[in-house]
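ok so for the tutorial part 2 we go from a plain amino acid sequence to predicted structure tokens. step 1 is just haveing the sequence, like this:
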Amino acid sequence: MAVALITGASQGIGACIAKRLAKDGFSIAVNHYPSEGDKAKAIEVARECEAFGVKAVCFSADVSKMEDCETMVKAVRDEFGSIDALVNNAGITKDKLLARMGEDEYDAVIAVNQKSIFNMLKNVCPVMMRQKHGRIVNVSSVAGLYGNPGQINYSASKAAIIGMTKTVAKEYGRKNITCNAVAPGLIRTPMTDVLSDDIKAKMLDAVAMKRYGEPEEIAAVVSFLVSEDSSYVTGQVIEISGGLSM
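step 2 — the prediction. this is what the tokens look like for a chain of 246 residues:
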């Protein structure tokens, strides 16, 4: 049975991706931040994944730290034997206008949203190379494509993910490893709930479909990108925004 490792899978888009891939038949490694609250949420996600008849195990790791990622990837391999799909989803926001943002707030978002992907790729790509097969999906954002007021840290991290995605696609394509990104728009999650009403109203006004997206709609695209149906798709950024860019 194929194995999928999803970072930041205790809630929101990550949890929906975990459950969708479980429905697709993947065994699921549910990564969560090492806190009691996130652990409890992750256990519930794993339980819901198991309802599809697959194995699901929770793995605690702060993916902004290389050592945590090394330990987790080894534990996942010991538990499941392989890592066939990696979904780099972990992310945070610390929104402020540039004039008010502190260096610590900038660095924290870069560490969790962007450095974590380097950490995970560094540890998982060698596993996939030995397997001669792998599917990687990085969760970016429309903020990385177009920018967003009050989110210079978040936008920078999500833009960097796009460059990383294309680079990994070029470096590992010959090894039968694909790497793609999804760029969600205004999706109904705990993360978007913290945006100001003004920002949400302006974003929704710019959406052609005039509604929020749902986490399940992101998970459906990820499902395609980790499947064999996408075997000749790599280095792509798929915007899932209801027509925000039009």
